[in-house]
Amino acid sequence: MRVTGKTVLLTGGSAGIGREMARQLKAKGAQVILTGRDPARLDAMAAEGFETLAADLSSAAGVDSLVAMLGERDIDILINNAGQLVDHDFRKGSPDPDAANDGIYANLTAPIRLITALVPRLRARPQAAIVNVTSGLAIAPAARQPVYCATKAGLRFYTLALREQLKGTSIKVIEALPPVVDTQMNDGNPMKKMPAQECARQIIVALEQGRDEANIGMTRALRLVESIAPSLARRMTLRF
After folding, report:
1. Per-domain residue ranges of the chain
2. Which residues of the chain have pLDDT under 50?
3. Exactly one of 21, 148, 150, 183 is catalytic; which is it?
4. pLDDT confidence of residue 68
5. Which CATH superfamily is domain 7-238 in?
6. Which residue, among 133, 206, 219, 182, has the nearest Cα to 16 in the 3D structure?
7. pLDDT given for residue 152 in this prediction
8. Is residue 105 flagged as an active site residue?
9. pLDDT digits over 157-201, tens only?
């Protein structure tokens, strides 16, 4: 798919991987509408010439408000990139159940609700795409991030089923599985981190090439190990 001239709705586009995708898509001639929660970050992206929409996607009301702000605009590409990393580790104490609820909604339910709302207008376009950003941890979980891993695994399986449902339509369904990326979300993570700019570049290449999956960086190795010895892949990631 050529992204030039396409209208892209990119959630979580004011920081991290999303911000880099927004910049690279714009450089290729796409019109990018990006969402975020932080007013200062949104203002900074607006100063770069992006259309920005303030949206908290941790509730149904937040998703519905975003859809309402879009009005009847045509959307060619939906990129579900927004996500929340939830601290849910019983080794540190009792986790906050409300934080878990917000994370589950933002990471899993919000993309499903947004896709449900936008598939009719995506179907009306001659060429369209849905990109769901999951994680290498959707393949094998890390012990310290069970809620995040569960939501990303859920979104992975939703994406696989959605792709089958939309087979033969104008909508290409793509899953992007980043490794640990150098973003604010991973501050304090001791693992080697991929630059956000490179991760974004690989996701956009997968979109342009029409691939079903973008296994990025170390996720490629993890996918290989998981295909041969799933229990070994889990042992590799559960220690983190």
Report:
1. 7-238
2. none
3. 148
4. 98
5. NAD(P)-binding Rossmann-like Domain (3.40.50.720)
6. 182
7. 97
8. no
9. 999 999 999 999 999 999 999 999 866 665 556 567 799 999 999
